[in-house]
Each structure stands twice: as C-alpha cells, then as structure tokens.
C-alpha cells in the first residue's frame, strides 16, 4: 500500500461524505438544532461505525452477506426502521421550541452510530472502493491504518461541519425556518428509510 493509495481513498471518501444521504442530513440537522457539541458527537458516532464497515469490508464481510442474505436483510430492515423512527421524531418536534427538542451529546452519538450501523450497503460500497484502490494481501498494520484513517477523516469532516453550522448566523437562519426545514428533513429521511426497506 502506498501513500497515493491512501490519498485516493480519502478523496473518494470525502466525495461520498458530501453526497446527500441519511448520515449527512442527520449531521446537518443535529448541528443546526442542537449545537456544536451534539453535532460533533453525532459525527463521532457516524464516523466510528463507518470505519467499522470499512474494517468489515477489508475482512470480507460482504462475502458473509452473500452467503447469508437473511443477515443482510435483517440488518437492512432494522436500519430502515430506525431511520423512519428518527424521521418521525423530527417531524413530530418540528414546531417544538429548540431547547425542548435538543438532543444530548450521548444520544447524538448513539443516533449517529445506529444510523450508520443500520446501513449495510456501506460495507458493499466500501468493499467495491477498497478493491479498486488498495492492492491485495494487505497486512494487519495496513488494515489498521486504513480503518484509523477512515475514522479520522470522518471525524474531521463532521467536526468541521458541526462547527460551521452551529455558528450564530446559521442557527438564527435555522430557527427562522425550523418547522419547514425539520419537516423537509423528516420527509427526506423517511423516504431514504423506505427506499432502504423496499430495495431488493
């Protein structure tokens, strides 16, 4: 494995992080609604599980999912239902005052972790990217480095994201449009949950 391999992986990873999906949407809403600390905690949860999926891909978990499709299906259904649950809570609290709907840091971390844990497609995506970028026969040290690098990139990305979005100007703009923005976020998260649930 070369430094160029790792840089290529990081470029692909940042592009994936910037693409709209449940993780980015959850991180955005948490940072705006609950502040920097909760936004960072959500990012730590999202990043930790994303790195676990990369580890799983490096260890060949996608082969296990192919051999036992019911395990993949069970994990996918659980993740979809949890995403729909988060969407329901966001819709329900859309008109609630901000402090009443605030998400504690521990809860933000757990929700972030569960959102990414319930997305087994991540391991399939990671496996396809890893096969293209990295050579075969990686050592245990190289695998550990790739996984640690993945976690660090995600944590830095979401930490910066939370810091930028939790500023006073961003929060004031969010507060002015909170019911509409929260309901739009809930609809998107709910739709993503349903898509995950219905995808074959």
TrEMBL record:
| GO MF annotation: an example | amino acid transmembrane transporter activity
Naturally occurring in which organism (per UniProt): Roseovarius gaetbuli
Q: What's the protein here called?
A: Threonine efflux protein
- Please verify whether the record's keywords include Repeat: no
Q: How does it sit in the membrane?
A: Multi-pass membrane protein
Q: Which UniProt keywords apply?
A: Cell membrane, Membrane, Transmembrane, Transmembrane helix
Which Pfam families does the record cross-reference, listed alphabetically? LysE
Q: Which residues cross the membrane?
A: 6-28, 40-61, 67-88, 109-134, 146-168
The listed locations are: Cell membrane
Which InterPro entries did the record assign? Answer: LeuE-type
The question of whether Cell membrane is a record keyword is answered with: yes
Q: Which PANTHER family match?
A: ARGININE EXPORTER PROTEIN ARGO (PTHR30086), ARGININE EXPORTER PROTEIN ARGO-RELATED (PTHR30086:SF20)
GO CC, alphabetical: plasma membrane
């Amino acid at each position: 494995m070369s430094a160029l391999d790792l840089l290529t992986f990081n470029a692909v990873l940042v592009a994936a992080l910037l693409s709209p999906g449940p993780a980015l949407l959850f991180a955005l809403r948490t940072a705006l609604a609950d502040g920097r600390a909760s936004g960072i905690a959500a990012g730590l949860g999202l990043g930790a599980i994303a790195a676990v999926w990369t580890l799983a891909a490096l260890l060949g978990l996608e082969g296990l999912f192919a051999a036992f499709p019911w395990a993949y299906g069970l994990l996918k259904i659980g993740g979809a239902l949890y995403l729909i649950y988060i969407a329901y809570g966001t819709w329900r609290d859309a008109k609630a005052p901000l402090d009443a709907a605030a998400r504690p840091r521990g809860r933000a971390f757990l929700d972030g972790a569960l959102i990414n844990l319930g997305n087994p497609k991540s391991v399939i995506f990671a496996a396809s990217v890893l096969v293209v970028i990295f050579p075969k026969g990686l050592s245990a040290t190289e695998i550990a480095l790739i996984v640690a690098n993945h976690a660090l990139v995600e944590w830095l990305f979401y930490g910066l994201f939370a810091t930028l979005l939790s500023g006073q100007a961003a929060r004031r703009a969010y507060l002015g449009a909170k019911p509409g923005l929260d309901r739009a976020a809930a609809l998107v998260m709910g739709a993503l949950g349903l898509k995950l649930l219905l995808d074959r």
